[in-house]
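INFO  loader      accepted 1 record
INFO  loader      residues=241
INFO  predictor   begin
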Amino acid sequence: MSSRRTTTIAGSLVAASFSAVMIFPFTAAAEDEGPPSSKGGKAVDEAPAGVELTTTLPEKISVDNASRKTGITATVKNEGTEESGEIRLLVVGFDGLTVKNVQGCSRIAKSDLPEGSNSGFACAVDNLAAGDSKSYDVEATYDLSKKGRICLPVQTASGDKTYWQQGPVPFGTTNPSPNAPATPLLLGTDNKPVAPGGDELAETGSKRDVLPLGAAGAALIAAGAAGLWWSGLRRPVRQES
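INFO  predictor   done
INFO  writer      dumping tokens
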């Protein structure tokens, strides 16, 4: 179920506060296929006793080859036995995947995005009861000539702790279909587009290991398909795939 309540984001993105709240209309329906997956997800800071937060993304999405538009459903879940307290979900796009809108959420200022990302939204989830989940419709575009990744951190409302982070995990295909109406992309698959000049694969994205989070001074560690994004660069305590 999508969040339909206008939200005001208070606090900070790790350490930087949002200067404005803007709600954008969302008209395109998500066209997700396949079961939801927590692939590329890791626990980061220890959650309160009885709270177990995770996120899921669809196993498969479809990109319109003419418009480059796609729909993604991002879901945050509390699989524990106690209420989560106030939390927020961030939805951040990298490389060829650009997040255009997340219904009911606020756009993250460009200066507060981690280096290498191109877009992001913050969603005030408030409180999740034990066993509850909340889903958000994500409107995005995907440049199929590039690789593309998405990241879903789950933080405290103030952003001082990150309980869980899925990604940056790629969506992609090893078999591009430029002449088809749409191209299916699989979660956890690096996109391998063919360059216009021949069979050489396009190289995109930052080659750095650490991407600072703008004015906030936090970091995103890119390690293969999954990185860890949190203020203290702590070691994960649990991993799911």
